[in-house]
Specification:
By secondary structure, the chain is α/β, with parallel strands linked by helices. It has helices at 2-8, 23-63, 83-104, 121-136, 142-147, 156-166, 202-208, 230-233, and strands at 71-77, 111-114, 175-181, 184-187, 190-193, 216-221, 238-242. The strands form 2 sheets. Strands 2-1-3-6-7 form a 5-stranded parallel beta sheet, with helices on one face. Strands 4-5 form a two-stranded antiparallel ribbon. Helix 2 packs parallel to helix 3 (83-104). The longest helix has 41 residues, at 23-63.
C-alpha cells in the first residue's frame, strides 16, 4: 500500500525538482502512472465486485428472484496541481470509467465523475454532445463513448450538492463504489484533499456520505494521508481501502 501511495499521487513539485540527470526516468514514470493507478483501482474493484456479486447470488437463491440492484460509482479527481498531472489524472479517470463499464457492468449513467473546475463546464458539455454523436454512429467504438462521458466540476460545493441529490435515489439493494484520486496536504491533524476552490478534510468528506442506504459500500482512497479517512468513514457494511 505504501508503494501505491507513492505511485498514485506524486507531490506537486516532484517533477519540477527531479534530477536533471534522469529526465528519461521521469518521463517514463509519467507515461506509466495512469496505467498503474487505473490497474490498481481495477484490481481492488475485482475483489469487491466479485464479493458483492456472490452476495447478490445468495440473496437471489434465498428469495427465489434477483433483486433490482445497481452498481453505482462516484469517481472524485482532485486538483492536479500542474499540467503534467492534468494529463496523468485525466488518463487514469478515463481508464477507470472504461474499466467499470466494460468489465464490471456499471451502466454509464451510474458512473458519476467529478473532475476539473467550473471553467471546464463548457468543454464538458461539448464532450457530452460528442458522446451522443458517437453513440448515434453505428460505426463508433464503445470505448470512445465512455471516454468522452461528461464530468461535473470537482469542487467541494458541487460534490456535496450532487451527493445530497443522489442519496434518496440509492436504494438498500444497490452497491456504491467511491474512488478518490488527488493530492492531499496535512495540517493540524487533518488530511485535506485538494479540490478546485476550498479543500475538504476527512471529517467533512465522511459527512458527505452519511445516510446512504446502499447495502455494500466500497471506498478506494488513493490519495496521500488517506489512512486518516478510515475512522470517520467507518461504519457497518463498508469496505475502505487506503493508500496509507
Amino acid at each position: 500500500m505504501c508503494l501505491t501511495s507513492a505511485a498514485a499521487v506524486l507531490p506537486r513539485n516532484a517533477l519540477a525538482s527531479g534530477s536533471a540527470s534522469q529526465p528519461d526516468a521521469n518521463a517514463f514514470r509519467l507515461i506509466c502512472l495512469p496505467d498503474f493507478l487505473a490497474a490498481f483501482v481495477i484490481v481492488c474493484l475485482s475483489f469487491c465486485v466479485e464479493a458483492t456479486a456472490f452476495q447478490d447470488a445468495a440473496i437471489s437463491t434465498n428469495a427465489g428472484e434477483a433483486p433490482a440492484a445497481r452498481r453505482i460509482a462516484v469517481v472524485i479527481c482532485g486538483h492536479p496541481g500542474d499540467a503534467d498531472h492534468v494529463e496523468l489524472f485525466r488518463g487514469s479517470v478515463e481508464k477507470i470509467q472504461t474499466g467499470l463499464a466494460t468489465h464490471y457492468q456499471f451502466a454509464t449513467e451510474n458512473i458519476h465523475v467529478f473532475m476539473g473546475d467550473e471553467d471546464d463546464s463548457e468543454s464538458s458539455e461539448a464532450e457530452a454532445l460528442e458522446a451522443d454523436a458517437l453513440e448515434a454512429d453505428s460505426t463508433a467504438t464503445p470505448d470512445a463513448t465512455l471516454k468522452t462521458a461528461s464530468a461535473k466540476p470537482a469542487t467541494k460545493e458541487i460534490i456535496a450538492a450532487e451527493l445530497q441529490r443522489l442519496k434518496p435515489l440509492i436504494t438498500a439493494n444497490d452497491s456504491l463504489f467511491v474512488i478518490v484520486i488527488g493530492h492531499t496536504h496535512f495540517e493540524n491533524s487533518l488530511a485535506w484533499l485538494n479540490l478546485h476552490g476550498p479543500d475538504v478534510q476527512q471529517k467533512e468528506f465522511a459527512a458527505m456520505f452519511e445516510g446512504i442506504s446502499a447495502k455494500d459500500q466500497v471506498f478506494l482512497m488513493t490519495n496521500p494521508c488517506s489512512g486518516y479517512y478510515i475512522r470517520p468513514l467507518s461504519q457497518p457494511g463498508r469496505t475502505i481501502i487506503t493508500a496509507t
